[in-house]
């Protein structure tokens, strides 16, 4: 609630003890103060809702990015695994060939 409204209400309430204003004026001031408070409160609630929505959107986007990174990392590990298996098979075939060559040379 703006500060001037607070002072206006205090002034109106304190002046009512000295000279009593008509009841409709007091009622109007209360309604006016209530309306200002309600409008301010609605604005704050709207800002909080917008902030929460924005945070939800940003967290979803971050989650999608993390999933993409995870998928890339899994794919990279799979590629590394396949590459390592191929290298191991190549080394095994080289080792078998060397053993066969060595066994032929030792027999002959």
Overview of the structural elements:
Belongs to the glucagon family. It is found in: Secreted. Keywords: Secreted, Signal. One of its GO terms (cellular component) is terminal bouton. Residues 1-19 form the signal peptide. The protein has one domain (28-106). Helices cover 94% and strands 0% of the residues. Helix 1 packs antiparallel against helix 2 (23-107). It has 108 residues and is an all-alpha fold. The chain has helices spanning 3-18, 23-107. It contains two helices and no strands.
From the structure above, extract its key features.
108 residues; mainly alpha; 94% helix; Glucagon_GIP_secretin_VIP
List the helices and strands and how they pair.
Blueprint (H helix, E strand, L loop, with lengths): L2 H16 L4 H85 L1
Helix pairs in contact: 1-2
Pfam families: Hormone_2
Family: Belongs to the glucagon family.
GO molecular function, one term: neuropeptide hormone activity
Mean pLDDT comes to: 80
How do the helices and strands follow one another from N- to C-terminus?
Answer: HH
Task: Report the β-strand fraction as a percent range.
Answer: under 5%
Measured distance between first and last alpha carbons = 105 Å
Oligomer: single chain
SSE-based structural type: mainly alpha
Percentage of residues in helical conformation: over 70%
Query: What is the helix tally?
Result: 2
Mind describing the biggest β-sheet?
none
Our Rg estimate from Cα atoms comes to 40 Å
Low-confidence spans: pLDDT under 50, at least 5 residues? none
**Tally of extended strands?**
0
Shape: rod-shaped
Number of domains: 1
